[in-house]
Structures are given as C-alpha cells and as structure tokens.
Specification:
Largest sheet: 3 strands, antiparallel
Shape: elongated
Oligomer: single chain
Length: about 90
C-alpha cells in the first residue's frame, strides 16, 4: 500500500489487481472533482512511478578521497546557558 499525504489528500493502491498501474489508483472521497482530475492527470504523466513492474536504475558508487592524512579538528559546540544545568546533570548519571 502506498500513501502520499499532503493537505488531506490521500492516495493508495487497490490491492485487487495482480499488476498495478496508474488506473489502479484510488483517491480519497473528500477530494473535489477538479482536484481528483488534477491528481489523475499528474499520475498519468509518470506511469512508471505508479507501476509494480521493476525498472532499472543507475547506481553509482561514491568515493570520498581525503586530500591529506591529517585529521580535521574542530572546536566543540558550546552548550547554551539555559541548558548547562540539564546537560551537566545528564553527564553525571
């Protein structure tokens, strides 16, 4: 089941068909006819997203090459004054 929610707009798949497509989308009953039509048009523009058929994707490996072997040192963040007592008591536990 797929749920997309934004401003009370619910979208989910019917689970009755074996191969799900854009035509299998069911929209919430609280949508106006115009809004429902816009969502149907939008889903129709991207049929591959709303399909259960696997698609290929381009996967790339990322390599982070350090420029030097020297470790990076940063000063620690200061604790806000209002939280110092809470922070200190949590460290004592």
């Amino acid at each position: 089941m797929m749920v997309l929610c934004r401003q009370r707009v619910w979208l989910w798949w019917k689970t009755t068909s074996t191969k799900e497509t854009v035509k299998d989308l069911k929209f919430g009953d609280d949508l106006s006819a115009e809004r429902r039509r816009k969502l149907e048009d939008l889903a129709g523009c991207f049929p591959s997203i709303f399909s259960d058929c696997p698609h290929s994707t381009i996967l790339e490996k990322h390599r982070n090459e350090p420029t030097s072997s020297t470790p990076v040192w940063q000063r620690q963040y200061s604790v806000p004054y209002a939280m110092k007592q809470t922070f200190a008591s949590s460290l004592r536990r």
